Amino acid sequence: MPGPVGTAPRHAVAVSPPPATEAPAPARPRRRRRYRPAALGWAAFFLAPTTLGLGFFYMWPVVQTVYFSFTKWGPFGGHQWTGLDNYRAIVRDETVLSALRNTVYFTLLGLAGIPISIVLAALLARKGRRGVTAYRALLFLPVVTMPAAVAIVWRWLYNGDYGLVNELLSHVGAHRTYWVSDPNTALVAVALVGIWTTVGYNMVILMAGMEAIPRHYYEAAEMDGATGVRQFFAITVPLISPSLFFVTVLSIIGSLQTFDLVYVMIGRTNPALPQTRTVVYLFYQKAFIENDRGYAAALAFLLLLLIVIVTAAQFRLQKRWVHYE
Amino acid sequence: MVTRSGRRAGTRLATLAVGVAVAATLLLGACSSSGSSSGSGGKVTLSYGLWDKNQVPAMKRIAAAYHATHRNVTVNVQLTPYDDYFTKLQTAAGGGEAPDVFWMNGPNFQLYASNGVLAPLTGTLDTKPYPASLVKLYQLDGKQYGLPKDFDTVGLWYDKKLFDAAHVKYPDASWTWPTFVDAARKLTVPAKGQYGTAALLTGQEGMYNTIFQAGGYVVSPDGKHSGYGTPQAIQGLKFWTDLIQQKLSPGQQQMTDTAPYQMFEAGKIAMYWGGSWDAVEFGNNPLTKTQADVTVLPQGAKRATVIHGLANVVFNRSKHKAQAIDFAKFLGSKQAAQIEGSTGTVIPAYAGTQQAWIKSHPQFHLQSFLDELPYAQPLPVSANTAAWNTLEADILTKAWTGSTPVDQAANNQAQKMDGVLAKEGK
Amino acid sequence: MSSLVAARRRPVRPASIVAHTVLVAAAVVAAGPFLWEALTSFKSLGESTQVPPTWLPSTWHAGNYGDVFDGVPLWDQLANSVINAVARTAGQLLFCSMAAYAFARIEFPGRKLLFGLFLSVLLVPTQLLVIPQYQIMQDLGLLNTLPALFLPGMFSAFGTFLLRQFFLALPAELEEAARIDGANPLRIYWSVMLPLARPGLVALGILTFIWSWNDLLWPLIVNTDAEKMTLSVGLASLQGQFATNYPVLMAGSLLATLPVLIVFVIMQRRVIEGIALTGSKG
Questions:
Q1: Res B37 pLDDT > 60
Q2: Mean pLDDT in chain A?
Q3: A76, A106, A273, C253: which one has the fewest Cβ atoms less than 10 Å from its Cβ?
Q4: How high is the pLDDT of residue B134?
Q5: Per CATH, is B44-151+308-360 categorized as 3.40.190.10?
Q6: Residue A35 at interface with chain B, using a CB cutoff of 8 Å
């Protein structure tokens, strides 16, 4: 739901500003800091399921994946240590480079959806707007719909001969093409669907941010003679920058992991596959179709590094443009 | 606030109930296992993996027939859609969880056999009743791993109504490449979105046939070289790219958006190179069941068609290998072949059992597929067919869309394919 | 609503017209495809491929829906999707709230470190874990079973983080009162904290349910039999079988997404508020 499709919401909150809520130890005043001996036992009890579960299913697998990235697998299982072979192969592989390129394009295009969300949020957050519930619900429908279903429906809409998109375009005299099979247009076509599925989600978050802005800011600006547009850029945008930051980070992390849409919309014999294959799609192909698990593990690890770097960079940059109250 | 109202307790109770339900499901799930399970008291359950849902009724009947004479063995049919079949099979086999008996095809056979995943069939085997090329397809190092279950060839399906409208004579055994192209030209009506034929980017129904017909080959007999770089192969490929270029066939993008067989069923394609397995689909579709017919493929430098067939193989790590091998041999028997044939879904491989299939859709000249047997050539395979099939999809697509000249693409394919074949040699 | 307030007639401002035009256009783009999907699902294949396209089907082919059931074992997959989603949601609600409580309210050594470890899990993309998780399922003998679907999904660092925020925001006095009354942490957790954190639990529950329902990659990998797959995988498989038989595919898509759509329409406000909460609290 956050980001294009199929991303775990768990990413959603990691990247929200921790300082605001994390820093001091909660509630208790410092002086009462004595560990009750029973506390450890209770803590263990409450933490056990999640810690064990996360450790077993999430943390240990990270270590294992890193290990696997240095091995080569046989077609029916079994693996042997091959050192940096996989990484060397990745660097030389042109499909990895094109997959990376495609993924970056998807990410950039995904960001283009954010201004749309901002505008819609602004329109809906305005006090006294009628029909907010209805609009919000309709705009949110794409967000809750299964990505596989979304992909199938849009493939139909994009069909070169019978699709509605081309039908509407022909009324306007615009160019018709085989959107999903044409290597020149496929990526944009899929990215647009990705935007379609996330606009509602981003909009809702931004609306919440906008509704939290005290009205007297606007009233003061009104008295100073500022127009609506000016108010928007001078007040709204800066004050929703924390939500904007949240939405941007989510969008990027989600886009970097695009898989579902490409898997369902673009088939293996689609001439446009090389132009739309993302890193995660390549990972799936290597791991479960070609059974080259070591290579896939290395790919996944590199993706992790990319996400960490990009996210860290965003956090660094946030000081420049995000205003916290 | 903090009240112990009945409603609060209700919510907590609900959570508890769900938690218990979850725990119960977990325990139940952990106790059950996938794959075959052995019963107690000599009763054995075998799992039988396959991918064609049209054939499930026939397979179930065969399983029942086996059970009638082997009361302690029950066979469980497991259907996996083709797209996922081999992906899952490979991973399952790696984990020791493959079905006891399962369908195997030519392209994947050597990979599985050479890695010890399949158990050779033991005991007496009579391989005479099956097409020789298919028997060889499932042999490795002198051991037979499966008995041919069925076979298929590729023929020329055509739309009678479109031919009548264009006043062109129906295709027959006298047709050659030039006759075919000529007819395609007369049958292409751009105004109606109608094409003479469809240049499918598939090996089995498309290019392998024309490569063979031009006198070329795809994999050399010793399995070490690709035939794509030869002039004959390039001719075979050009047959199709020329059709696209002359707009006698839809372009690759259009054929990706809408599957050619569907265009055939919509009356938009006059001639369709398709397999004998299409008889079921075209026999059911409202338009094609009255409008379509089939004949042998046109002749190039020589006559050729691609023959292929499945075999039933046994998992080497099956917990009931002896029974599995016995069932696999039964699957290759005349009795099983007759049951298969009677449902008209595939052509059984056992000699003399094909009549039922021919009669299954009397409106089509299904005999054509059998007429092609004398000059049929087996589907090209190697130890790691998938690897160079992927190359075909990547490289030849460019020739089909016209972004690379055909001979360049063919040479590129030959080069990369040689590399793949060389690695197999180890 | 406000339209009933006839006394104060608000003049229709041009800006308002523009705004509503934009909103209507956006709503059409957002919801239109669903309408088109529904209409197409009732057309015959021939009719759906007519140019120019017809809007309403000339005859209503409910048979397409029957084809979907032929193509995939829909009831089995529906049951699997439900079990998967419910199990994951229940598991997360229970386990994450327990861990969140410990992080928020119990002092113990190494708390910061452990929490940091939890947070680091959030940065890892799912795909990184899929191969080892698959191996684990294989070693446990749980491949191609129902528990394989939901087991890893019952534990979540995100859920823990979210609920911790909620717990932290609760006033400590209620707890103190309970403790003075002699209640142990388990009792406090169950009777005091959970009821108060209801909004957070609801938000997490809804999010997890929807995400579990829509999950594709993990069910695709871990289960092979069609009867053990979830609806999302079944739908992808349906496309493999019906290629470009769009009316049947539309019918399948509708059937697969209908449950969540119905839940959404009913619980709409809760869902959207929950989302908004994660954005603001997070």
A1: no
A2: 82
A3: A76
A4: 92
A5: yes
A6: no
ipTM of the complex: 0.79
pLDDT score of B151: 94
Q: Is the pLDDT of residue B303 over 90?
A: yes
Which chains have 3 or more CB–CB distances shorter than 8 Å to chain B?
Answer: A, C
Residue with tokens 């409910």: C62
CB contact under 8 A, C253 and A149: yes
State the smallest CA–CA distance between residue B140 and chain A in angstroms: 18
* CA dist list (Å): C24 to A84, B338, C18: 55, 63, 10
How far is A7 from chain B, CA to nearest CA, in Å?
23
Contacting A with CB below 8 Å, chain B residues are: 87, 90-91, 93-95, 111, 115, 117, 193, 201, 252-254, 256-258, 386-387, 390, 393-394, 397, 400-401
Tens-digit pLDDT profile for residues C252-279: 888 888 888 888 888 877 777 777 766 6
Of all residues in chain B, the one with the smallest CA distance to A163 is B257
Residues of chain C with CATH 1.10.3720.10: 67-281
Question: With helix as H, strand as E and coil as C, how does chain C read?
Answer: CHHHCCCCCCCCCHHHHHHHHHHHHHHHHHHHHHHHHHHHHCCCHHHHCCCCCCCCCCCCCCHHHHHHHHHCCHHHHHHHHHHHHHHHHHHHHHHHHHHHHHHHHCCCCCHHHHHHHHHHHHHCCHHHHHHHHHHHHHHCCCCCCHHHHHCHHHCCHHHHHHHHHHHHHCCHHHHHHHHHCCCCHHHHHHHHHHHHCHHHHHHHHHHHHHHHHHCCHHHHHHCCCHHHCCHHHHHHHHHHHHCCCHHHHHHHHHHHHHHHHHHHHHCHHHHHHHHHHHHHHC
Q: What is the pLDDT of residue C8?
A: 54
Contact in structure between A146 and A228 (CB atoms under 8 Å): no
Could you tell me which CATH number the domain at A87-149+185-321 has?
1.10.3720.10
Contact across the interface for A291 and B91, Cβ inside 8 Å: yes
Give the residue extent of every domain in chain B.
Answer: 44-151+308-360, 154-307+382-424
Collect all residues of chain C within an 8 Å Cβ-Cβ radius of residue A42. Answer: 102, 106, 184-186
* Cβ contacts from A onto C, under 8 A: 341
Positive/negative CA dihedral, A308, A314, A318, A319: positive
Q: How confident is the model at residue A22 (pLDDT cuts 50, 70, 90)?
A: very low
Mean pLDDT of C26-36: 92
The residue of A28, A57, A178, A270 whose CB has the most chain C CBs within 10 angstroms, and thus the best one to mutate to test that interface, is A57
Chain C hits for A207, Cβ within 8 Å: 276
Given CB atoms, is C224 within the 8 Å cutoff of chain A?
no
What three-state secondary structure class fits B405?
A: coil
CA atoms of A280 and A254, how far apart (whole Å): 11
Residue A50 is nearest to which of C96, C105, C215, comparing CB atoms?
A: C96
Specify the 3-state DSSP secondary structure of B139. Answer: strand
Residue A9 pLDDT: 37
Q: What's the pLDDT tens digit per position in B159-207?
A: 999 999 999 999 999 999 999 999 999 999 999 889 999 999 999 999 9
Give which of C133, C144, C181, C242 to mutate to test B binding, by max B Cβ within 10 Å: C144
For A79-89, how does the pLDDT look when each residue is reduced to its tens digit (9 = 90+)? 889 989 899 99
> Given pLDDT bands bounded at 50, 70 and 90, which one contains residue B148?
very high
Average pLDDT for residues B68-87, to the nearest whole number? 86
Which of A5-14, A102-111, C11-20 shows the lowest per-residue confidence on average (mean pLDDT)?
A5-14
CATH domain C67-281 topology: MetI-like fold (1.10.3720)
How large is the average pLDDT for residues B93-98? Answer: 82
Give the minimum alpha-carbon distance from C198 to chain A in angstroms, rounded to a whole number: 19
CATH architecture assigned to B154-307+382-424? 3-Layer(aba) Sandwich (3.40)
